[in-house]
Amino acid sequence: MTETPAIGFIGAGRMATALAKGFVNAGLVSPDKLIASDLVLAGRDAFGQALGCETTGSNADVLAKAKVIVLAFKPHQLNEATEPVRDQFNKFHLVISILAGVKLAKLELACGGQARVVRVMPNTPALVGEGACGYALGQAATADDGALVKRLLSAVGMAYEVKEPLIDAVTGLSGSGPAYGYTIIEALSDGGVAAGLPRDIATKLAAQTMLGAARMVLETGQHPGELKDMVCSPGGTTIEGVHELEEGGVRSALINAVRASTERAVELGQE
Length: 271
Known about the structure:
Blueprint: E1 7-10, H1 14-25, E2 34-37, H2 41-51, E3 54-56, H3 59-65, E4 68-71, H4 78-82, E5 94-97, H5 104-110, E6 116-121, E7 131-137, H6 143-153, E8 157-161, H7 167-175, H8 177-194, H9 199-220, H10 224-231, H11 237-247, H12 250-270
Parallel strand pairs: 1-2, 1-4, 2-3, 4-5, 5-6, 7-8
Antiparallel strand pairs: 6-7
Helix pairs in contact: 7-12, 8-9
């Protein structure tokens, strides 16, 4: 395996820390090859303590010491973060952006026009190593860059390369999807409480049930509909529950949620 270059984070918040921990825990990079900058002292101190690596208040330090640069601040801070150091980006920098809604063309311009840029849409389960990410390569990014990004993101879950227009669909599905999942878990827990279970037990059973169902899909490779049918005995309890879900429009509501979130992502990208 090719050795991973030094990695620098501009922005040292929770997602940056989760990504860095994943890279280190997977053996892709050592703490002495990490550096992070953040204007907030508490943020960079927390990052440094969690990773045992160098931190700084200067974005220029990050660009000078790392070849892989992860942009991990708020999208509206793009110009503020990059304008003072725009001329310090060069063709040897691979820039990985996790800024929601910021398109590749804008990122490439902000990074001086020479850096190789990859746009990533992660999701919050990356914080526990179970992320689902999509990424799109910029004009100057190479196949090797794509392979490195996939290797890095796979340290915190799974990652798939898509064309940039589909990043909005990734946002609608896996970017926003954890919130849909939490809503379903909460509703199942409410149902368990209504049926007499204590809240703590109901919530844990609901969460584990969804986790187990997800693993069945991923590990068996079977279609979710086929797995559902395996649980639904003729005239049994499960088919009665599934009927109520269909009566309540749960399937359509989830489809519409993904579509609405995708459409909003498109709108935000045009602002």
